[in-house]
Amino acid sequence: MLNIISPILSVLLGFLVVFILKPKQPKHLKLLLAFSGAFLLSITVFDYLPEVYQKKSNQVGLFIMMGILLQIILEFFSKGAEHGHVHVSKETKEFPWLLFISLSIHSILEGIPIDTHHNLIYGIIIHKLPIAIILSTFFMASKLSKTKVVLFLLLFALMTPLGVLLSQNFEIVKTYYYELSAIVIGIFLHISTTILFESNEGHKFNIAKLSTIIIAVVIAYFI
Q: pLDDT at position 25, please?
């Protein structure tokens, strides 16, 4: 049940942070993004990747590359919302279907391995929180109606639990679990490294970001 509820609560918390606190300082959000990227990458490298290679080493690399390519394709439509960018016009009044569909595919896939690989839920929760804050901040400032904003965020919050339910109830997902897991690893590797590279503006040394990344890696190692 925790695997179902936690991703929803993470998105809800992100929305409430924006709705109540109305944050205007991007510096702290970039640190949160850096932490989430480092933590997700560490969880993937320390636990998830070795497990998949151990259980099914045959062609794992191929499926990881497929995951990286799939994420690149999804970002063509989402414009990088998975790692903190929203490029939909603030003047739009239409429901952003392309953004929603690409984020949904990403979220459903990331939900598939959660039920088997329990530590992954922490990485996904921390990954979703800054994304939810960024999406909420953007949509609250746009001309989208509040109904559409709430609908978008609610459906977005439900996609990862949907992936969990698919892994629990559909035999085809269970049959190809490790192939799908390798694809998810590729997605995580692309997103987390992109977040880390982009969080370092101008490639300048920043002690706060470096400390944040080191803390995230250490926490992920000892979980």
A: 56
Condensed to tens digits (0 to 9), the pLDDT of residues 107-155 reads 999 999 988 887 888 999 998 998 898 888 888 878 888 888 889 999 9
**In this predicted structure, what is the pLDDT of residue 180?**
93
Q: What are the pLDDT digits (tens) for 151-206?
A: 999 999 999 999 999 999 999 998 999 999 999 999 999 999 988 887 555 555 57
Which 3-state string (H, E, C) describes the chain?
A: CHHHHHHHHHHHHHHHHHHHHCCCCHHHHHHHHHHHHHHHHHHHHHHHHHHHHHHCCCCHHHHHHHHHHHHHHHHHHHCCHHHCCCCCCCCCCCCCHHHHHHHHHHHHHHHCCCCCCCCHHHHHHHHHHHHHHHHHHHHHHCCCCHHHHHHHHHHHHHHHHHHHHHHHHCHHHHHCHHHHHHHHHHHHHHHHHHHHHHHCHHHCCCHHHHHHHHHHHHHHHHC
CB-based contacts of 18, cutoff 8 Å, min separation 6:
133, 136, 137, 140
